[in-house]
UniProtKB/TrEMBL annotation:
Residues 103-116 have a biased composition (Gly residues). Residues 78-116 are annotated as: Disordered. This is Uncharacterized protein. The lineage of its organism: Bacteria, Bacillati, Actinomycetota, Actinomycetes, Kitasatosporales. The chain crosses the membrane at residues 12-31. It comes from the Bacteria. Keywords: Membrane, Transmembrane, Transmembrane helix.
Amino acid sequence: MYLAEPSGLISLALFLIAVALITLLAGSFWLSCRMRTRAPRLPRAEEQPRMPQGGPVREMREVREAAEVPKVAKGQHALTPYELTHMSTRTSASQKRERWHDGGSGSFGSGGLGHH
């Protein structure tokens, strides 16, 4: 019987929760305004990047090949990935692009038997 009676504590708790939510929203609004005023200003039109004197930069295409992976002598420890960093590439002697084999899609998971 006591559970069914209206209680002032429930309405007080709901009021305090509402006040806490409003305070939280107002505080987040104040904090975002404060952060926005501290942020650097947007660049003006004269500060925007300009096109180079020689015109737009063009893409350069070339075939590159990787440097050989260092060989490990028998009995030495295998190289770990951090020992293989900064592997450079060089321009290939042949600039002919490799193409897929005739009759092959060139992708994995195509469902076919692959190139034979």
